[in-house]
Design a protein that fits this description.
alpha/beta; Rossmann fold; 2 domains; seven-stranded mixed β-sheet
Length: 464
């Protein structure tokens, strides 16, 4: 009997990884990195699956919590193919190489720091995987288009637009259970209507047997999109008037491009006066190039900006090199600095936080989801002092959040999407949310639909 095992994003948000197996084949849907501090050690767990037996990995989209363990899977013996849309694969290459470089640098820095402090840390001082491991993934990549079926031994996969980020997909698997034809949908991360760069997520197929649905914002509604631009403009103007910098930890994928799009409009309308805007992230710069190369995947409001780049304006400074990045600290005039990582768990943002977090005139602005245990969440929760790169810093900067920028559906958007099926589902699995949110959302969806809905635990398997 076909079986589904939850190897991540079960009781937590990151580490999406689901194993589908039947007598003919094993398929892995997503292979994500754990990013919440309390679950980081799972990244190092000896693989709970047999990589050599997996026929293919199907990726919903290029965020690291959906692809970031791929290099480890390959190192551990995976020899199959990796399927995703071409934009997802182009971005995955950039993301995985960057992740590997950060893994190597972090392990190295940790080793040196622990030597100095005479202690050993909670995680191995060896990188989770290397740049070489990440490079080994690329020849396995096979691009596929939305709506074009890919056949495996006994199972067919079809990708559909999820409206979450460029090239994002929900994945349908059609398989046989005994003599019955069955379909399961993995929602991946579900986007929202009325986002600047993406169309609304595609409606689910009207008939389905099983659904694995994310619940990141299963407990919250998002403010209307039009409030985002106004709040962003107000925060920038107030910070500039105080003579401070606006420091924005931002995901390189989609969030940075959304910010640039909003900033272009704020500047064009005169709501914000021209100022230096740094994109201090080689990865975000590369991903913006990929974005620009795929206008066929654009949606939402960006459609009206096809003449010229929707992401370029006067004052924009792309700092790819390390020396250009360091020089930002010398810029004394108020500036906006966008850098990764999005949850401040690594990357150049840490240096900008160090330079600004104790300055009352600066603002740390969060524009994305901050998972429990990440530095971003710690700062957002009002903790002071905070520990960054091994030192403590008093938090004096203004801490702000613009929540409406989310690329994830809010509670009622998720509920509406998930209850639109014409035929009752055999089972719904709620994943990719904090444990209490998953459980509450599962209860609400079950009440609304009368279907069996469960929030699986890490490692739990179900017959399909
Ligand atoms: Zn995502």
């Amino acid at each position: 009997m076909p079986k589904l095992t939850f190897l991540g994003a079960a009781g937590n948000v990151t580490g999406s990884r689901y194993l589908f197996e039947d007598t003919h084949t094993q398929l892995l849907v997503d292979c994500g990195l754990y990013q919440e501090r309390e679950f980081l050690s799972r990244n190092w767990d000896p693989s709970p699956l047999e990589p050599a037996k997996i026929e293919a990995v199907l990726l919903t989209h290029a965020h690291l919590d959906h692809i970031g363990l791929l290099p480890k899977l390959v190192r551990d013996g995976f020899k199959g193919r990796v399927y995703a849309t071409d934009a997802t694969l182009e971005m995955a290459e950039v993301m995985l190489l960057d992740s590997a470089r950060i893994q190597e640098e972090d392990a190295d820095a940790k080793k040196r720091r622990h030597r100095r402090e005479g202690r050993s840390g909670p995680y191995p001082e060896e990188p989770l995987y290397t740049v070489e491991d990440a490079q080994a993934c690329v020849p396995m990549f096979r691009p596929i288009e939305y709506g074009k079926p890919v056949a495996f031994d006994g199972t067919t996969a079809v990708f559909a637009d999820a409206g979450h980020v460029l090239g994002s997909a929900m994945i349908y698997l059609e398989f046989k259970s005994g003599r019955a034809e069955r379909t399961i949908c993995f929602s991946g991360d579900i986007g929202r209507p009325e986002r600047p760069l993406q169309d609304a997520p595609s409606l689910p197929r009207s008939t389905l047997d099983y659904l694995v649905i994310e619940s990141t914002y299963g407990d919250r509604e998002h403010p209307p999109a039009e409030e985002v631009e106004g709040k962003l403009g107000d925060i920038i103007n107030e910070t500039v008037n105080r003579g401070g910098n606006v420091i924005i930890p931002a995901f390189a994928l989609e969030r940075t491009q959304e910010l640039l799009f909003y900033l272009k409009r704020l500047l064009a309308s005169g709501r914000v006066a021209r100022l230096p805007v740094y994109v201090d992230s080689p990865m975000a710069i590369k991903l913006t190039e990929i974005f620009t190369r795929h206008p066929e995947l654009w949606g939402g409001e960006i459609d009206n900006y096809r003449k010229g780049s929707p992401f370029e304006f006067g004052g924009l400074k792309l700092t790819a090199s390390a020396s250009a990045s360091r020089a930002i600290a010398d810029d004394r005039s108020p500036a906006i600095i966008i850098a990764g990582s999005g949850m401040a768990t690594g990357g150049r943002i840490k240096h900008h936080l160090i330079n600004n977090i104790s300055r009352a005139e600066s603002t740390i602005l969060f524009v994305g989801y901050q998972a429990r245990g990440t530095l971003g969440r710690v700062i957002l929760s009002g903790t002071t002092p905070v520990r960054i790169l091994g030192r403590e810093y008093e938090v004096k900067a203004r801490i702000e959040q613009v929540p409406g920028l989310s690329a994830h559906a809010g509670r009622s958007e998720l509920l509406d999407w998930a209850s639109s099926f014409k035929r009752p589902l055999k089972q719904v699995f709620v994943t990719h949310g904090e444990e209490d949110i998953e459980k509450e959302f599962a209860g609400e969806l079950a009440r609304r639909t009368g279907w069996p809905v469960t929030a699986p635990e890490y490692g739990q398997s179900f017959d399909l």
